[in-house]
What does this fold into?
Amino acid sequence: MTPAIDEGKLNQLVGQMLNDLGGAASVAMVRMGDALGLYKTLHEEGSMTSEELAEAAGAHERYVREWLAHQAASNYLSYDPANGKFTLPPEQAMLFAIEDSPVTMLGAFDGVAAWAEGQPKVQAAFRDGGGVGWGDMAPCLFCAVARFFRPGYLQNLVQNWLPTLDGVVAKLRDGARVADVGCGHGWSTVIMAQAFPQSQFFGFDFHPGSIEQAQAHAREHNVTNAHFQVGTAKDYGERGLDLVTFFDCLHDMGDPSGAAAHVKETLKPNGTWMIVEPMAGDNLEDNMNPIGRIYYAASTLVCVPTSLSQEVGAALGAQAGEVKLREAIMAGGFRNVRRATETPFNMVIEARL
It folds into this structure.
């Protein structure tokens, strides 16, 4: 017998689907607005007609006109029918035009595009349970990840996260040795190196292309106390470290407990390991919210397949939660593990011997 349809629930679901499809359709539109400088031009110049924006941005008016209509319908821009002008309000500018804003979303839109590009490889892995290596993901993923996480590190790392670790800031000011493992494009390493010029920072990542970008960023910012080389979490060579940092990468590793054991061997007896991970509760029901929804998608399309492509293939996932993370950390030999602080997007864990 076919269950009766609740028309109210059906209509609510259709409305949700329309919002979801509108958001999905906006990914390409936002990325074009960013790449063509349309948001920044509106931010710098103020209210503009489609003709004015097209001329200022060096674009074809008919395309710009249609793009502007979509942006206004999406509430990304405001529109005044009295004069035919479009405006990027200051709140929207924080998301679309100001690169260092703590709530910029441009990297997230880039990331969603990269996830979609990688769908065929991950979809094939669903059948056989295999993995998809980090280096085999869509090429634009690496830049998107760096761009997405950079604002959070810029706003929180030195100001809010490091001070919550026991005695670490004093060591960094005096001159410490630090390994930033899984450093990607090196923004976390560069930010710390700029803040603590007396310390030496060593960034490691197993993706050669990311290390090249990290080296370029260090040169671009005239940072001489940050050094980058290819290395994994289980074989990086530095020893006698005061601090080891893992930013948003432990859950991606095939053998997180093995990585923890290697960190233990490379730290001084009074050293500290800082693990920054996506914010998550320990149960599915704790993560049924907008942030969890995005992170589960990222986990399905990137984090789990990346881990399954490596040894052990623990596949913790981007929403592992503190209990699973703590188990992996303590399995590597750490005994003192605590959540030092958190944001809506990240939890910061301190581990000591």
The chain has two domains: 7-96, 106-352. The chain has a mean pLDDT of 97. The beta strands are 78-80, 85-87, 177-181, 200-205, 226-230, 241-247, 267-278, 336-342, 346-352. Residues 156 and 329 are 23 Å apart (CA to CA).
